[in-house]
Amino acid sequence: MIYDEAIATGDATFETEAPGWEAWDANHLDSCRLVAEREGRIVGWAALASVSGRCVYGGVAEVSVYVCRDARGGGIGLRLLTALVESSERAGLWTLQAGIFPENVASLRIHERAGFRRVGRRERLGRLDGRWRDVLLLERRSPFVGTETG
Question: Which of 59, 62, 64, 137 has a C-alpha 20 to 30 A away from that of 87?
C-alpha cells in the first residue's frame, strides 16, 4: 500500500505497479530492511538494493525510502534514512546512492540532510506516463567504511 501511494504520485519511481513480495525480496539486500511503525501500523519502510553483480561494487547499494501519505512531513523519512545509513555501515557498505526525480523535493531534502550529495543529473533516463524523466543521482560515502588506502 505504501509503495502504491508512491507510484500514484508520479514523482517517486518509474514503476507503474508494485511488485509482489517474491520479486521485491529478490531485488533487495537481505540486511538493511527497516520499517517505521505508528500505533501498531507500518507507516514507512526503507531498504537497499545491490547496484551491480560485480564484486568491485559489493559495498555500493541503492536506497529506497517510502512513507505513507498520512505520515509524510513528520520526520519519519529522515529517521528511516538515518537508520538505514547506520545499518549499511554495520553491514560493511561504503557508498549509498539514490536516484530521485527532480520534482521530488521532499526526498531530495531528506537525502541531503542525511549526508547525501548530488553527483549528477541523468537526463531523459526513462519514460513514465509517456514523457521522458530526468533523475538526479545522489550518493553518500561512509566516513568509516572503505576509507583505508593502499
Answer: 137
